């Protein structure tokens, strides 16, 4: 049993913390969030130079051969800074999908470009009727002239506007909710028949609705085996949840620090409001929630390399449920203890609260994962 | 024990229902029902309709132009307004400063201000909180110094809702620093157009800008705008806060939100069925509905006690506490009902007349901002922590 970071991982953490300190001063972030792209190419380049875009890739593709722990370290740091670059879409989802399911040609073609910062990806998995079920796929891909023709619509695709390629989950056989019969495709963002509607999200990120109308993909664009995409999606979703848990832990820690500092310095009735027992107890509950969240984020991360699929899935569901619960408590009470100031756009806390709220609603919320956990017990 | 309204009251209920049906402009109803942004003109338009009917001030005495309805009628009226998605009226004149003026003001003030509050011709805002006087309101520092027949006002108020719409602001100002803090406060009415008054919008986390900082730089206020006695303002302030507290339970509004939540849960799907068919989601809605029912009947019990002249005291704080909790839980569950479509932030789709297709469910756009926005309800009007302090002290004697 060991919860500590290796020397290399500690160096990575220091480097991520430095990046956030230097590049993510809060006013700088606000300006970046307000641009049409919503992030900066300079930051993206720097992430590439530091090797973060290839964090979990093998060395042959320009990677540093890290894994879930390295990804966790980066995501936690990004959570502290509310980092805006599409790391989650490109690296946590995109690079992972290719690594898990890609053939040699696809890996050799795409992964080095991705590692260098010259290729961004997004993952179009969700559909409106599916809610959080990854197997609920209506978008169809039918065999056509040596390839496939894709028709359908995907919702809330993170990082799509910036992406060069879209990885899309489409149904090649079976009924809408069958796990068998889903196939992954790599589609150029500017392919004929792809149309996008881009928007800002409540936490200042970017996402899109994507429509596919007779989009042709040739055989080289099939990612992994036909009809067998679901197991890959499930595996990558677990990885994504572990990464989101780490990001949430970073967010919660900032809320905890900011709120603790605020109640120590804000004076009412002739004393710091942190002297009032009711707020002291609530602050302690925030602390406990942060620690519970951190523990479960570690569990999810540590289970990523386990071959015990059932125990891995249970741990991931438990972690996401805990993160949802903790994030809600920490977020809501941080706002409450900041009083009116907590409601303002000017203060950091509201931005962290919004991100945490949206993390809960990504890849299944607290209720969804509690139910999943119960079903697996 | 009888939970039924008397015949007199059901007749009244029908009358209100019919009136709203015949007179509420469809576009206003539509805006409200869909949770779209309301402009000053929208609120004003409905205000004028109710004023012309003579129903603008249900709780005011007849001599001042009100209806002097009994509490049950007032309750029915409020319920029906919310049920039909009427635009909420601005409370600052009608609920807050109006009753202070007719209870504590002089005859000139009554004739000068009350008719224009009733007609909607003058719009009010509230100058209570200051940057360093929030929960501890009595520590406020905005100064009013007597200079002949004027007061010179200097200082800053904050969280001023709708200052941008207002013609007048009622302010708590410090006129003395002697004795207890509460004993040096006065209640002053200030024309928002006076030289030296400035306001600056505060953007809130939901992206809205309905609140403001309001600054007073050597503002000359005629002494005749002092309500009641100098240094007795705290008494009037508490009177006003009591009215405010009992009016922010928002049972009717929450009922409308609950209906909307059920609609959304029926429309949205998950696991191959409507979200509403999910027993867990349904249980969450049911728990909230029960909580709301308990609040409703608690409010009714207080109202009935009030009709017998046994008006509740500090107990009304519980209506504020539970009422705001329910608003927060309702908006949270509504947001969760649309799942991933809680993510998009498309403020233009919350404007009336926006004709593009919605991203995801039709009703989804405003749900997350509403959840973020109503976090304020457990903070404003005396935070819920302060309400519990009041109850602990005044009701339980702790």
Unreliable segments of chain B (pLDDT under 50, ≥5 consecutive)?
none
- Strand percentage of chain A lies at 15-25%
Distance linking N and C termini of chain A: 24 Å
* Overall outline of chain A: globular
Task: Work out the helix count of chain B.
Answer: 12
Report how far apart the termini of chain B are. 32 Å
> Fraction of residues of chain B in helices?
40-55%
Question: What would you note in describing this structure?
Answer:
The complex is a heterodimer of chains A (377) and B (398). By secondary structure, chain A is α+β, with helices and mostly antiparallel strands. Chain A contains 11 helices and 10 strands. In chain A, helix 1 packs parallel to helix 4 (68-81) and helix 5 (87-101) packs antiparallel against helix 6. The longest helix of chain A has 37 residues, at 229-265. The two termini of chain A are 24 Å apart. With 398 residues, chain B is α+β, with helices and mostly antiparallel strands. Chain B has 12 helices and 11 strands. In chain B, the strands form 3 sheets. A 4-stranded mixed β-sheet of chain B has the order 1-4-5-8. Classes of the chains: A alpha+beta (377), B alpha+beta (398). At the A-B interface, strand 6, strand 9, helix 9 and helix 10 of A face strand 9, helix 9, helix 10, strand 11 and helix 11 of B.
Descriptive tags:
heterodimer; A: 377 residues; alpha+beta; four-stranded antiparallel beta sheet; 10 strands; B: 398 residues; four-stranded mixed beta sheet; 12 helices; 11 strands
Would you summarize the structure shown here?
The complex is a heterodimer of chains A (377) and B (398). By secondary structure, chain A is an alpha+beta fold.
